[in-house]
Structures are given as structure tokens and as C-alpha cells.
Give the backbone structure.
Amino acid sequence: MQLQNEKAPHKSYLVFDPVGVATSERNNLRYFHQMFEWQRLYPNRFDFLNTEDIEFYAGLGEKLEKNMKRHFIELMGEADHIIVPASATTNVDSPLLNWQISQAVNGFRLPVIVCYMGVENIFVKDFVRYENWVPAKIRKYISRDSALIAHIPFTRDKLERAVASFSLKDHLLPWNSTTIF
């Protein structure tokens, strides 16, 4: 229940690879489950728009791609930003993962929050070290400085602050493609 002077959390769209989520060892499903648990425990701090979709579409892959894309676009229209997990298990070349990022950034101009899994601190010099963790589209936007991207370690506190700090609708945006938060 929302208190009168308590603001609703910004709406987050979680970028994921529906093909690889359940059918591959290269997935971030455990991190999504952690975010779902945080939302359950702190509903006034997190509002992930597509938690059910990640579970539902996992493993269905390309069978429903056209319907998935239409649905994803609808959800992106409601979102304040997108969250992109980055880890050693991210399928960085996934066409659907990179398509979601492209639609969110180019179509909706949404700010991006990249969460680095298992990392306690992130610095600009670390982008080279973690380059293979980041989806191809994100690497392209960083190289061209053509998207508004915040980079954070994956902790509840950092994610909570980033989610509250970046919103297209509230005009709260990262400075550039390499904003460290």
C-alpha cells in the first residue's frame, strides 16, 4: 500500500534473452529471480513490468517471437528505463536481447541501467575488463556515446538508487554512455 506522500517506484523493463533463459547455461535467470525477490520484499521500491514474461517466455524462443516483440514494445511504452544484466553468462550476441535494447533506446529514448553481476565496484577503466559481459548493442552505444547509460554493480542498494534516479518521464537521465552510478 502506497502512503500518501510516498511516490510510486519508477517502472523498470528488464531486458532478457527469452531463447537462452531456460535452454542454455548462458543465461541470467538467477539474477532475475533475485530482482523478483527484491520486488516482493520491497514493492514500494521496485516495479518490474515484465517479471511474468521472463518466466513465461523462457524456453519458448522464436516460436512466439512476433507476439513477444509486440508485447515487449507495449511494456517499453510504460517503462521509465530499462535494466540490462551483464555477466559472464550473458548471451551478448542474442538477436532478441539486442533488439530489445535497440527498441528501448532508439524507439523510446529510455535511459539504460547496466547491472554488473558479482562486481562490488565499477569504474570506467573496467569497461574493457567486462566488455565480453555486455550485450553488443550496449558496446556499440558506449563506443559512439549515443545512449544514456548508467553502470552499476548488482546490489539491491545500488539498483534501488538507480531505479529511483533514472526516468525518462521525470527527465532524470544519466549524463552519457559511461555514467558510473
Summary: The chain has a mean pLDDT of 86. The first helix runs from residue 18 to 23. Residues 84 and 114 are 5 Å apart (CA to CA). The longest strand covers residues 81-86.
